[in-house]
């Protein structure tokens, strides 16, 4: 079944909010284009957890060099990177 | 009590075999049925499983060696610090001096009292006697007791408060082994220094921006600085073996990763060959594997030096446990109210002095120029 961009974005946003909640931070104001590390909602370990969840949820193993701001820095970037690779 | 794992017979015509593989090291915990190696003759290859759970106390053969069928391949123990008998008969030729190890009644009673098996002790004559047991005990440097309680450690009594036993997971058993090594082998000491974390924070932020990193490289960069220091100060990348310092050729940097309820020491092998960028990538990779509970064997063993941080939980003092066969673990902690932060180090005082460690910590508090 093809991935739906809005559904992917929604799932990523939910995961970010969950991870932030574990740090006692409310990330519900996170915008789709916000650079996640710059928002301060998640620390480095939580971002790592987000990446691992992203790989596992979408069966999408990443190469280390792909884990950068351009590909995974925001909700939009994560969704677009996933869709482009899955379609490619 | 320590028990031997004997080299199995592959076929009836060969009394010796070649050890082609040995996948465990002394100190490893193994579980019943786990394949720890393989042996071969010209005709066949046979996996060697262990018959019980336990710690690998001592390995008597190496891969590539030829060994007699029935000789001891390795010793297993319930705890990592158990003594290994100095002599052990072959499984296929129990007893010595051409006799049998069938004990006399008195010897049997003594064995029962000591909690020993007859097959561990060589007999001088046709039957195993009290004198044989006493002679063997003398070689083990254990007190000879012909009466009274067993010399084995008294098992802990269950608390009087009702409860139930739970088996430890493999990771928990690993932690138990680490803590016992720290307690029983190392002469562990700890010290810490305060420092201004701002230069490191600025350096890491610049590095992240220049390289478009998603994850903060702060801790990886400090850990890499530790690797660099180990290259010029090999005594921090070492352990003590039989009253000598054993300096490792490679710097295998262990980095603690808390993945849910599980604490891993993820290992970057061969870090001495890497530059900062490659090290950050390699560490990121093993961290991801740890987070997914999919660390490979080489990524979870063989640390020669270690680094840990509990800054994430606002821990301002963090006295780490030494990883087995290492002499230093650096502990990074959160900034305090004053703005200063703390770098601590647990070290093996058999090899390192406080002065040695202070020098390392002072060097670590500053990013590269």
How many extended strands of chain A? 0
Could you state the oligomeric state of the chains shown? heterodimer
- The beta-strand count of chain B equals 16
Strand neighbour order, sheet with most strands of chain B: 9-16-15-14-12-13
**CATH top level of chain A?**
Mainly Alpha
Second CATH tier, the architecture of the largest domain in chain B:
2-Layer Sandwich
Mean pLDDT of chain B: 85
CATH fold-level assignment of chain A: Non-ribosomal Peptide Synthetase Peptidyl Carrier Protein, Chain A
Number of helices of chain A: 5
Describe the structure.
- The complex is a heterodimer of chains A (88) and B (369).
- With 88 residues, chain A is mainly α.
- Chain A has one domain (5-87): Non-ribosomal Peptide Synthetase Peptidyl Carrier Protein, Chain A, CATH 1.10.1200.10.
- Chain A has 5 helices and no strands.
- Chain A has helices at residues 5-22, 36-39, 44-57, 69-72, 75-87.
- In chain A, helix 1 packs antiparallel against helix 3 (44-57) and helix 1 packs across helix 5 (75-87).
- The longest helix of chain A has 18 residues, at 5-22.
- The two termini of chain A are 15 Å apart.
- Chain B is an alpha+beta fold.
- Chain B folds into 3 domains: 1-84, OB fold (Dihydrolipoamide Acetyltransferase, E2P) (Beta Barrel); 94-152, no CATH class; 170-364, 2-Layer Sandwich (Chloramphenicol Acetyltransferase).
- Chain B contains 7 helices and 16 strands.
- Chain B has helices at 105-114, 130-139, 170-184, 198-211, 218-232, 276-291, 354-364, and strands at 3-6, 16-22, 29-30, 35-40, 45-49, 54-59, 66-68, 72-77, 188-195, 238-241, 244-247, 253-259, 262-268, 305-309, 328-332, 341-348.
- In chain B, a hairpin with a 4-residue loop joins strand 4 (35-40) and strand 5 (45-49).
- Chain B is elongated.
